[in-house]
Design brief:
homodimer, 457 residues, alpha+beta, Aminopeptidase, Alpha-Beta Plaits, 2 domains, 9-stranded mixed β-sheet, 14 helices, Bact_exopeptidase_dim_dom (chains A, B), Peptidase_M20_dimer (chains A, B)
């Protein structure tokens, strides 16, 4: 990359790290109403950071958590406009007792910063802010017109973002979108994501008797809601690991052979992956490799279970109710609305008499697949190769960024997903971390990306 | 009943109620270690109450919660010795928010006292203490030799009682045992219990990955412990409601036709029972009436479920582990040790690869069936008929009192189960209550029982 920008990053490494740590200290947990004030504080903090760098910024209310918008459009009429998207909200940190250092006190160990939100997504969002700062501090100008759009509801399904984009489609008009909210294939291997799974997230509630009953006095004659829930969940897969909800695969479009071949060519060690999870063995749908299961196949998972007595010792209760959080990861062209209807029909069909069962759709997002080409894609290949010293690989991703499809559809702009996380970084789990080397290289690569993309026309 | 005892109960009704309320205020939750001091305090309180009445009493340590033993053996050599058993420990009170008045602050509504332990078993234990007091205050003597044995571990499986009885079989030698820890068939219908179900209580733990994982990044390739648990639990019944653990019914001895005929003759309204539970419909094993399912058939129930994220909103976690509390109610001649072996073999057989599953036996108790005869049984029929104004019925009971079989086996004495609870009394659930009318009539009936039994030889 150009020497002037590199010198800036060399000179400011400690400061840009400290600023990120201030951002990470704000517990902006969007799913928890007791953190609403913290979430708003994170938005205000980010607005201030954008203004300090030299962008015009504002915090815009939504029916939920606010959106922070930063803009600088002085690159010139012939220059492209790039929209940088990220999110400042984070997952809940529970179970807190499993964190080795406090979730909201950034702590460096082994070259990584441990904190909730470090890699998902504050660190990856903020590295763009600092890349913009490098340009503005060193040269006083940006090589592209820039819109920074950061939301506070990504971890709860981006429920207000689509409407915001729709309502502001002229203000948000751009030539391309870049998002850093994903992981590299492996340490040292820069990566561009070609696909994301979508999401349909449900809460299943089973209500039996009006109150908890004595399992001796009533057991055997009253349907047990926890057992009913288990039997309902057990109908959701067949013996080969396929999801057994009728119609579930109707809209699945197979991945092109070329993409599957490229995936099979990646240096992936399934045993290493297994060891990293700590699971005694891997599992999943028969007939697919691990990477294919993660990147190209839909799932149905239990994310949580709760019923009856869960404390120390024994309590002989027949619980009044049982609850499961169940989410399906979706692949093109599955539609979360249709999956919602299929799930609800399935649950209604298999629910036993004696209990009342509801499946409430909490949120959903469409799956996505990229066109692998265009000026921003080409610029990313150049920038990543320069900073990381090797060509990027094209990968898939099992997680969801529900708004990617919305950006393409509403703004008509291609989306580039270039992330700087690493495998095993514990996003959504205790001890989330981000590599500080990747934080640094990510800033440099994105600063270079703006240059190359700005020079492309 | 005799006029002198009746006058005592008339004159002391308020006091004996207040004393019970003091007993109920002690949160002697044996399952929770944070209540160990309270449990010990309840033992000391009971010892004091026995001494005040005129028994020699002591509190005897065990490896768990102590046993309170009261004795008075001055009725004369020709008189029988009666052992009165009860328990001073109570179930956990959670979920606290579902109580209409505090669990450990006895509150009278509609002629009932609401408190954890009111009917199970402090109220039913203490009415014997007050019946003994009536005899000693009015006449200065007892018509029978009496041993009062109260334990503090009934709600956690009476883990130390059997060894205590074995070690003290000479001191505890008696002609019969009476236990009041059960319910009458209906209000106004005095009842003698002829059978109890036993118990085998398990905790099933499923461990998958070492820590919680992101369900997007790992879902589909790592076996989900919560889904694995659901599939394991779903194997425990067949479509007819029978327990599907191989060998489970091998030792079930059918109830005699005469007993089943008597049960079918009881005035039982299944729709009323359903309405009382609040369940939309009843369920259970096909081919049996509700009372037969409750009294004569074994079960396998889920008492609790816990896995992953159970809070507000959505968290896309693939949980590291999942837990179920599972208990089987047993009928003669099922043996909890054999059921433990069958459960563990079954779980090992159905557990999928990719997770580690354990079924830990937390506690067990043998089922029991009475011989319906003998001097104490006959005395009970007389005393109950006199006080309640109608002949008692003989019932079964779906719950467990694991030590009943131990008393018969070790002491060689028949056990009489005569209880004063009522249907719907919420034992083991929020808003547990006991009828104050039954508390009063229970005292009178037991005082009369001692008289009749003492005159029987």
């Amino acid at each position: 990359m150009s020497r002037d920008l590199a010198a800036f990053f060399d000179a400011n490494a400690a400061r840009v790290r400290d600023e990120l740590f201030d951002f990470l200290r704000i517990p902006s947990v969007s799913a928890r109403s007791e953190h609403d004030a913290d979430t708003r504080r994170a938005a205000a903090w980010l607005q201030g950071a954008l203004e300090t760098v030299g962008l015009r910024a504002e915090t815009i209310d939504t029916p939920g958590h606010p959106i922070v918008l930063g803009e600088r459009r002085e690159a010139g009429a012939g220059k492209p406009t790039l929209l940088i998207y990220g999110h400042y909200d984070v997952q809940p940190a529970e179970p807190l007792e499993l964190w080795d250092s406090p979730a909201f006190e950034p702590t460096i160990r082994d070259g990584n910063v441990y904190a909730r939100g470090s890699v998902d997504d504050k660190g990856q969002l903020f590295l763009h802010v600092k890349a913009l700062e490098a340009h503005l501090k060193v040269r006083g100008t940006l090589p592209v017109n820039v819109i920074v759009l950061a939301e506070g509801e990504e971890e709860v399904g981006s429920v207000n973002l689509e409407a915001f984009i729709e309502a502001n489609r002229e203000r948000l008009a751009c030539d391309a979108v870049v998002i850093s909210d994903s992981a590299m294939f492996a340490k040292g291997i820069p990566s561009i994501l070609s696909s994301l799974r979508g999401m349909a997230y449900f809460q299943i509630d089973v209500q039996g008797p009006a109150g908890d009953l004595h399992s001796g006095s009533y057991g055997g004659a009253v349907v047990n809601p926890a057992m009913a829930l288990a039997r309902i969940l057990a109908t959701m897969h067949d013996e080969t690991g396929k999801v057994a909800i009728p119609g579930f695969y109707d809209d699945v479009r197979p991945f092109p052979d070329a993409v599957r071949a490229q995936m099979r060519g990646l240096p992936f060690d399934e045993e290493h992956f297994r060891a990293e999870t700590g699971a005694p063995a891997l599992g999943g749908e028969t007939g697919y490799t691990v990477l294919e299961r993660l990147w190209t196949r839909p799932t149905c998972e239990v994310n949580g279970l709760l019923s009856g007595y869960t404390g120390e010792g024994a309590k002989t209760v027949l619980p009044a109710k049982a609850m499961a959080k169940v989410s399906c990861r979706l692949v093109p062209d599955q539609d979360p609305k249709r999956i919602e209807a299929l799930m609800q029909a399935h649950v209604a069909r298999v629910a036993p008499a004696g209990v009342t069962v509801t499946a409430t759709h909490l949120h959903g997002g469409r799956p996505w697949r990229a066109d692998l080409g265009g000026p921003l894609f080409d610029a990313a290949k150049v920038a990543l190769a320069e900073v990381f010293g090797r060509e990027p690989v094209v990968t898939g991703e099992g997680g969801s960024i529900p708004v990617v499809g919305d950006f393409e559809r509403v703004l008509g702009a291609p989306v580039l997903l270039v992330g700087f996380g690493l495998p095993g970084e514990n996003a959504h789990a205790p001890n989330e971390w981000m590599s500080l080397e990747n934080y640094d290289k990510g800033m440099r690569a994105m600063a270079r990306l703006y240059d190359v993309y700005g020079g492309s026309r």
